[in-house]
Amino acid sequence: MAIPDDHASRRAFATLVEREILPRLAILEQERQGELARRRFRRGLVGTIAAGLALLALLAIDDTMLAAILCAFVAFGALTAFVLVSSISEEAFQDRVRAEICPPIAAFLGLRFDLAAEERPDLAPFTRSALLPDHDQEAFRNGLSGLYRGLSVSACDLWLTRREQEENSDGKTRWTKRLVFQGVIATLSLDRPAPGRIVIRGDGGSVINAMSGFFDKHFKGLMPVTIDHPAFESAFEVRADHPEAARAYISGAFLDALLAFARPEDGKPPALAAAFVEDRFLLAVSGTSIVAQLPLGASMLDCAPRLEDMRQRMHLPIRLVDTFLGPEGRFGDGIA
Questions:
Q1: Which of 136, 182, 261, 281 has the fewest Cβ atoms within 10 angstroms?
Q2: Is residue 247 over pLDDT 80?
Q3: 195 part of a folded domain
Q4: Is the C-alpha dihedral spanning 198, 203, 209, 215 positive or negative?
């Protein structure tokens, strides 16, 4: 999902990185090193106290077995305290970095960034359209939203889990929590409503597609749509409640654009599902994220080389709009 290699845009982004983002990372690195120094001091303090208590136990207690047991308890307590004071929450620092560097990158793209994704989309249309699996719990992060080329667009990272019963080797059952989706979802407002519901999912072959249409409750009332686009039909299955109207609504140019948008670099089948629902286009892409885990390494500045990759990822909502509108600003003329 690469964005155009525009020299002026890259130069402007490099200026943003140098003047605004790198100074923020440098301040965060100073705070991080200060925290590391405090934790090293606490480790030394815990070790000294533990050694002193163990020595006192050996000197003050005549019973060798009792002294050994007491020393073991002291050692266990010291180890626990050592771990607690030594560990720095990686996720906490990841969040600090995201909170500092993602807003200016989003603003550079004309979008708003919300780390907690407070403006959360309604997942019911996604689930009803079989874009997302049934689930019990959901978690949102890294929200993006804005108005681009006259259309409102939003996206965020999403994790879904479901409680399931699992049978142990001894025949007993227990409840487990399973991750059923991790990826990005996006919602795009349309300038004209779709003629009913249109669902686009990865093609599982004629047998699997037929079984999905028969057994999947979310496909009830949706019929297969034949698209005169061999490359698209080899990758996706299209269903709609009004097949003829759906075929006329989505153009070949849009299908070309969506196919290019979904094509992963590793050559695997597209992990994309989409749907037209009234005046919205819904998108779910599994196995990716808007903001990837950053390699903090020995220094916060180590993540600087990944900033261009972050800009590429956060460009997804804009590319989605461009896929729809194309260079002429008309739906279906998108060129990815």
A1: 136
A2: yes
A3: yes
A4: negative
CA 117, chain centre distance (Å): 11
**Chain position carrying tokens 């990837």:** 292
Find the farthest-apart pair of alpha carbons in the chain and give their distance in angstroms, rounded. 92
Question: pLDDT above 70 covers what percent of the chain?
Answer: 70
| Mean per-residue pLDDT of the chain | 77
Question: Does residue 2 belong to any structural domain of this protein?
Answer: no
DSSP state of 299: S
Q: How far, in Å, CA of 22 to CA of 66, rounded?
A: 57
Q: Give the model confidence (pLDDT) of 6-59 as tens digits.
A: 678 888 988 998 898 888 888 888 887 777 677 776 666 666 766 666 566 555
CA atoms of 288 and 309, how far apart (whole Å) = 13
For residue 72, the model assigns a pLDDT of 62
DSSP for 246-277? HHHHS-HHHHHHHHHHH--TT-PPP-EEEEEE
Q: What's the CA gap between 218 and 215, in Å, rounded? A: 9
Amino acid sitting at position 224: P
Token reading at 151 = 């259309």
pTM to 2 decimal places: 0.75
Q: Could you write out the DSSP letters of every residue in 194-234? A: -SS-EEEEE---HHHHHHHHHH-GGGTT-EE---S-HHHHH
Contact present, 106 and 97 (Cβ < 8 Å):
no
Whether the CB-CB separation of 202 and 237 falls below 8 Å is answered with yes
Burial of residue 277, with CB atoms counted within 10 A of its CB: 0-12 exposed, 13-18 middle, 19 or more buried: buried
Number of domains into which the chain is organized = 2
* Shared-domain flag, residues 152 and 298: yes
How far is Cα of residue 18 from the mean position of the Cα atoms in its chain? 27
Domain that residue 39 falls in: 7-86
CB-based contact 21:98 (threshold 8 Å): no
> Could you report the per-residue pLDDT of 256-265, keeping only the tens digit for each?
888 877 765 5
Taken in order 326, 327, 333, 336, the sign of the CA dihedral is negative
Please report whether residue 99 resides in a domain.
no
Q: Are residues 116 and 81 in the same domain?
A: no
Residue type, 55: L
